[in-house]
Amino acid sequence: MKNFSGKVFTPLIFKGILSRADAIKSVDAGADGIIISNHGGHTLDYLPHPLQVMDEIVSEVSGKVAIMVDGGFRRGSDVLKGLAFGASLVGIGRPILYGLAADGREGVKGVVNGITQELKRIMTLVGVAEPGQIPHDILIAD
After folding, report:
1. Looking at 39, 42, 49, 136, which residue is catalytic?
2. Digit-coded pLDDT (tens) for 27-56
3. 62-102 residue pLDDT tens
4. Residue 142, CB-side half-sphere exposure with 13 Å CA sphere
5. C-alpha to C-alpha distance for 59 and 32, rounded to whole angstroms
6. Is 42 annotated in the active site?
7. Long-range Cβ pairs for the range 131-140 (8 Å, 24+)
């Protein structure tokens, strides 16, 4: 990857962030981005879902690093929630693998298209034109 000066660099992304403290440490360590993730909830029993910790993390590091989220996101409505909580990217793993197992490349395309169409439909219902414009209060009234 090249930056504006033409120098080659590799972004440093930290995954598995589930607390404000970890997010701060990531920024202090020079991360370019963080992935708020419980790794699908399979690393330790009782890990929080990423949506349970996003407010505290986003309020601390928004604008300092790119914020991504994954772990338990399966549908277009889940993507909407991740974006509303402040992520600029929502990772979807298991549904992609299901599509791959069911029908290879075409299965993956079907999953991606289905999730995308559901997200577009819900965005239309709530009056949002672009994914980057989904407000936090679409889900939770302050």
Report:
1. 39
2. 999 999 999 998 866 666 778 889 999 999
3. 999 999 999 889 999 999 999 999 999 999 999 999 999 99
4. 5
5. 17
6. no
7. 131/83, 132/83, 132/88, 134/80, 134/83, 134/84, 135/84, 136/84, 136/85, 136/86, 138/80, 138/84, 139/81, 139/84, 139/85
